[in-house]
Design brief:
heterodimer, A: 464 residues, alpha/beta, 5-stranded parallel sheet, 23 strands, globular, B: 121 residues, mainly beta, Ubiquitin-like (UB roll), two-stranded antiparallel ribbon, 8 strands, 6% helix
């Protein structure tokens, strides 16, 4: 399928739900995803894993199964292992699979690339055996692995979800070092009323916390001055809680303080993005359908702003409906009728977000790291270097990148972009919108010369 | 050979082992990593399999030769880069195949570092 009506990038909840809806309305759908199996990160490998570890992973994970199964329907072509490395404004997508590159052109494009974990630069976070909580979840989902003697560090619902899953598998974490404070909870209380519409999330959260307490998982809250200690690999976590210093010897440390939209594609298209203060991240500017300023390009799911899997599914469906309407498959009246209940459900799904975002804010020490702390893992650039260059009058993240090499490594700034921007804002007194973000250009991920050359061969073959 | 692992495998033995799963009963195949031979589950996620086999350090950084291992497990961070049969790849995006020869990418010794101080005349 080289000219689908709709190309969807990302086979997580938003992408799969959109594919299902669009195909049901008669659109031809090409579903591209990097992973070998459906599900994205939240429903990773759900078709294979659900019967094996569903009991440990819980209902929220199993909810992805019926959705994944619907990808076998007519009208959807799922290309697994497809790494998209270029999207252009005219609707052309270039991707690599098995060391060859392919080019397709779609009538509409839906970017459903989800979220990545917010960078959490702390002293020692580059040591082997320090990973992210998301990595811990992926190891459990895909491979059935749970780290022994692990300390979970940071804040947010995902921390509790993983701890609970570890407990259910009878391998609870050694301790949870939580960074949110009593003050954060107090500041979140005004949002509680709105959050009650999303009571399912609050109930789930309190159930998780109760289970962790019953299970005897040691929790430290309001933790600060956190560092990871070790020479060649992690040996211990140091921190202060309630005015007392602590040192916990451990084999693995898992970090997390929220997720942020994975914006690489929408940024590379030059689309407008704005700073979202509530979620402390950049989000693409979209209308209620997920439509960007390019009428044939849409963004749905966590890539549009963090809302979780259920909200992502609803957003994917809404985008698909609007695309079907633009493609002449349904009328404007049918669109309005179909969308009404979905929009109400989505609003309810999102109602707990302001409370959660305020109760579990990003960790200050990782938003403004100490000068010695490495913030660009690839090029080993410290926060101090960024601050010095910013003070010397560096004009923005892109100039700073040239001067420091932060963001020039293989991850292309995915791990340091937000930190660089916030350090610039801190030093210059400018807002995040004024500072902006790295310019993102293709190739969006490293590709080999061979992969580029394969594209040329394909061209000459088709012209022959 | 068996090395103490930092990980516990909860797999119950029903795992088919393809596309990244690790199953104690599935066929193990020989893989060579950084001077050692390992028997890893065929088709399993390479980064996960090496972690389960007790490997912590996957590479040395080109800047300071610091040790690194997998961090994000989802293809974002590039900290699990290894050289497989001559090509540098992300271990977390790769699957175990029999006979893989894997080495640690390290700072190339024959290329002068851009950061090195020039001796003053």
């Amino acid at each position: 399928m080289s000219n689908p009506d709709l190309a969807i990038i990302g086979a997580g909840p938003a992408g799969m739900a959109a594919a299902d809806e669009a195909a049901s309305l008669g659109l031809s759908v090409l579903l591209l995803d990097e992973q070998p199996t459906l599900g994205g990160q939240i429903y990773r490998d759900v078709e294979r894993v659900a019967p094996l570890r569903g009991a440990v992973l819980g209902q929220d994970y199993l909810d992805g199964l019926p959705l994944a199964k619907r990808m076998a329907r007519d009208g959807i072509e799922h290309v697994a292992g497809a790494m998209v490395w270029q999207v252009t404004q005219d609707g052309t997508i270039t991707y690599s699979k098995d060391n060859c590159s392919f080019e397709i052109r779609a009538g509409h494009i839906l970017i459903a690339t989800g979220a990545v974990e917010r960078p959490m630069p702390l002293p020692g976070w580059t040591l082997p055996s320090v990973m992210s909580v998301g990595a811990g979840q992926i190891l459990l989902k895909q491979s059935g692995l749970i780290p022994n003697e692990a300390v979970l560090i940071g804040s947010g619902p995902l921390l509790y979800v993983l701890a609970y899953q570890m407990l259910k598998a009878k391998r609870p974490p050694l301790a949870m070092v939580e960074t949110q404070t009593m003050g954060d909870m107090a500041a979140a209380m005004p949002h509680l009323g709105g959050a009650l519409r999303g009571w399912r999330y609050l109930l789930k959260g309190s159930k998780l916390l109760a289970a962790l307490m019953l299970g005897g998982v040691k929790r430290y809250t309001g933790a600060k001055v956190i560092s990871l200690e070790g020479e060649d690999m992690l040996r211990a976590v140091r921190f202060e809680a309630r005015g007392k210093p602590h040192r916990l010897e451990c084999q693995t440390a898992l970090l997390h303080h929220g997720v942020v939209p994975n914006n690489q594609i929408s940024l590379s298209l030059g689309l407008a993005h704005s700073w979202n203060q509530q979620q402390t991240c950049f989000c693409p500017d979209l209308d209620k359908w997920g439509q960007t300023s390019l009428s044939h390009v849409f963004v749905a799911g966590d890539g549009a702003g963090i809302g979780g899997a259920k909200a992502a599914e609803l957003a994917g469906k809404l985008s698909a409906l609007r695309i079907a309407e633009q493609a002449g498959r349904i009328s404007a009246i049918a669109l309005a009728a179909k969308a009404k209940s979905l929009q109400a459900l989505k609003a309810r799904e999102l109602s707990a977000r302001p409370f959660l975002d305020r109760a579990y804010p990003p960790f200050k020490e990782a938003i403004s790291p100490k000068d010695e702390t490495i913030i660009c893992r690839c090029e080993e650039v410290t926060a101090g270097t960024i601050r010095t260059l910013a003070k010397q009058g560096s004009q923005g993240p892109n100039q700073l990148k040239t001067f420091s090499r932060a963001g020039m490594g293989p991850c292309q700034g995915r791990g340091c972009g937000l930190t660089v921007s916030s350090l610039m804002a801190e030093q210059s007194g400018k807002s995040m919108d004024e500072v902006g973000y790295f310019n993102i250009r293709p190739p969006l991920k490293p590709v080999t010369l061979g992969e580029l050359a394969s594209l040329q061969e394909e061209d000459s073959r088709s012209q022959a | 050979m068996k090395i103490a692992s930092d990980f516990h495998n909860i797999s119950d033995g029903q795992n088919d082992g393809h596309n990244g799963g690790i199953d104690p009963d599935q066929p193990l195949v020989p893989v060579h990593f950084d001077g050692q031979d390992y028997m890893l589950p065929e088709g399993a996620n390479l980064a996960a399999s090496l972690l389960a086999a007790g490997v912590r350090v996957f590479r040395k950084t080109p800047v300071s030769a610091s040790p690194r291992g997998p961090f994000c497990m989802m293809g974002v961070c590039y900290d699990c880069l290894v050289e497989i049969d001559g090509m540098v790849q992300q271990a977390c995006q790769t699957f175990v195949k029999a006979g893989m020869i894997i080495t640690m990418p390290a700072r190339p010794t024959d290329v002068p570092s851009l950061n090195a101080q020039e001796p003053s005349e």
